[in-house]
Request: fold
Amino acid sequence: MVETILRATLLGLQLGVTLALIAAGLTLIFGMLDVINFAHGALYMLGAYFGAVIAAELGSFWLALVLAPLFVGVVGAAIEVLSLRPLYGRNPLYHILLTFGFAIMIQGTVLQVWGGQARRIARPDLLTGSVAIGSLNYPLYRLFVLVVGTILIVAIWLAIERSNFGILMRASAHDTEMVNALGIDVSKVFTGVFVFGAVLAGLAGVLLAVSRSVNPGMGMGIIIEAFVIVVIGGLGSFRGAVYTALLIGLVTSYGALIAPTLTELFLFGLMAVVLMIKPNGFFGTTEAA
Amino acid sequence: MQSALEYIRQRDAPQTGNQILSRPGRLALVAGLLVLAAVGPVIQSVQPFWLNLLIRMLTFALLALSLDFIFGYAGLLSFGHAAMYGTGGYAAALLITDVTASALVVLPIAILTGVVTAAVIGWLSVRARGIYFAMLTLAFAQMLYVVAFTDLPATIVAAETVTGGDNGLYGIQLYELFGIDFRDRLNYYYLTLGIVALSLAGLVRLANSPFGRVLQGIRENEERVEFVGYDVQRYKVIAFSISGGFAGLAGGLYVPFQSAANPGLLHWTVSGELVVMVLLGGMGTFWGPMLGAGLVVLLEDRLGGVASWEIILGGLFVAVVIFAPRGLAGVIVSFRNDPRAAVGQARRAIENYVETVRG
Reply:
């Protein structure tokens, strides 16, 4: 009994931090750029595919873990510069639609290039086997994801709160014109934020590609879950996204023990209830249009 | 959202004048319908397969119409229109299998199902605005998808199956109506065409009515309409329900045609694609979204085998959002008004684009 609960908790936390990595990018992009990025799930999928290809070709999980997110970042940069940049200042609706277009395009491209067959990244030798936690044998790789994810989340939080770029980022979101007038190229900051979000999504894609299958539908699957998290947490709030992601991870994991088919229903129900009581989500401050 | 909507209206919405669909516009639509009616038998004799495609295009045109009514006219972005489409479709499937195949009974109930579903979702969602409204409609629609996918109703009423779960319901019979044989595709085509024409006429009337004017007022400036004394929330819920009725009707038309109802009808990607259709065509024009829907269905079908239709569709869509925010309708209107000016505008738009990208 205790073992089952401990296992579910660890699984839930691990799922939570991966979801947090995805949701963090989404919420940062919204908070800074006012863009609801529908292509975020597609970027996550792209990360998984790049990872799978690199791991297969070069035979190294570690290279995949480093290179694949960078490639996703390049794709993100192209999207931001070529399409989002000309649209800032227009109704935010257009960003949703634009990124939805990209989501379709990326999915189509992936299908075209790699076909519909599912793949997987082989577990690195270093991380095979399991560790004993009390009386529980827990897979080492899952523990690795949990640790890496946690470190990353804390690092991002510190970067936003403490680093110069974080301050610049928040200032640009708060008063774009003023920051611009101070001689800083805000459009570069925006590109930076979008690329950062894309890299995070790509990273989550690689991390999950070991335990989950890599398939063309995975992006569309995860994006709604990420939206639910970001909306419940409060659009644009990093803290909200992280807390909610952990909560959703745990709920999913415990839910799998009790009623696996109803977890998803519960997620959407939770989102609906939260939005009806707190229309801006738990940590949302500004009224988003 | 208010200011944004005003902004989008001024900058992007086609200036349709006082009436939605002016006289020439209506005449063009009637002419279009007559052409569609006339080519039916020709197409059937030449390439019967194309008739199926036309029926699908018409069904999605109806669905796009229903979304344009609340999105283009009341400014409510619904990202969950699949909910009404799907429930209408399932209602039709269940009725035809267990009760009656009479179109005179089933189609009205499909409409009613759409209305009720939309009324509930609308009532729960209208207080949220903009993106939050979109997200709520998305959440409710997705809940219904899960309900259908897991066949939750069967668990509740302890039946063996209700929605058929993952597999859905299949072998749905075609409608019965005055002894017409709908296995003849031409007859089903005329049924669909007639329903789409009637729906379009009804929606145009409604949009031009005082009720429609209030909706446009809500789109322009919700607060002002509220201050004048209108119950804005009520208007929104009613408009959403009307729209839902048409979506339910589309579902009810599509399911017997496909002879199957599956959870895919309710999936959020249907809602997303629908929004794509409306914007691609040009929101707030009725004819634009119908055109957009037809085009998307056509592209999907024609390019489906190439496996890269998603790339083309996505690319086309991205280009339209960047260069022609008023959609195809906007492009067509500006070309009709002044072709030379339109070309100049296009050139300027591209120059502008290059400049912003360079930064």
